[in-house]
Fold Chorismate mutase.
Amino acid sequence: MALAGDLTLDLVRDSLIRQEDTIIFCLIERAKHPLNAPAYDQSYASFPGFSGSLLQYIVQQSEAMQATAGRYENPEESPFFPDKLPHSFVPPFKYPQVLHPAGTSINKNKIIWDMYFNQLLPLFVAEGDDGNYASTATSDLACLQALSRRIHYGKFVAEVKFRDAPHEYELAIRAKDRDALMNLLTYENVEQMVKKRVEKKAMVLGQEVSLGNDGDKQARFKVDPSVVSRLYGDWIMPFTKLVQVEYLLRRLD
Ligand SMILES: C=C(O[C@@H]1C=C(C(=O)O)C=C[C@H]1O)C(=O)O
């Protein structure tokens, strides 16, 4: 969603809520396949002129192709391999200038990548190997992009919170007081609601749907709803808040 100048916290929250659906659908798609370890093994395949795993190959090549089609011109998008990107060939679109320009330099994709592969993936995919490595890596890319977009959306969250209470934020920014900024931007009640809502969405969006009588069937979900709640509580929201603090620290530059 492109945000106009009349950015409000409600609009920003609406976008975050819609992005929950995207993230859960992406996880459901990835969970179709087992772990498929060779996709992440550097020694499994060699691509001409490229060193890395099949997954890295798919991510870097896809990002490069999407960059030529203008994906990273949008301030809501952050690439995983920013050093390797070609220029866009499409006519520039006038995205509303909402963020302070220093926001562009914030990119937390390294910690998102590590969290996704080292912590999250083993929690929601089965062990095993079905050989579908290209499709698996494509699903991983979709998950990574959805998580990255959501977490970097913290820049917009921070901007709107700053505009709503500039004096309070300015004091903490000038004192470079990260703890004070964290306290100002944290809403515990919102976070509890988010965790409950994503757990419920994982149940609704990931349920088995059949035409028979479902009443006596044990509920089975394509992705464990408690994992989705944990993903938000342990990683997505803390990382989004980290983006918010880092953005605010640069907001008066
Ligand atoms: C995004 C917000 O800011 C903070 C971060 C949250 C998140 O990442 O979902 C939720 C609540 C706040 O603690 C918000 O207030 O909506």
User: Anything to note?
Assistant: The chain has nine helices and no strands. The domain at 9-250 is CATH 1.10.590.10 (Chorismate Mutase, subunit A).
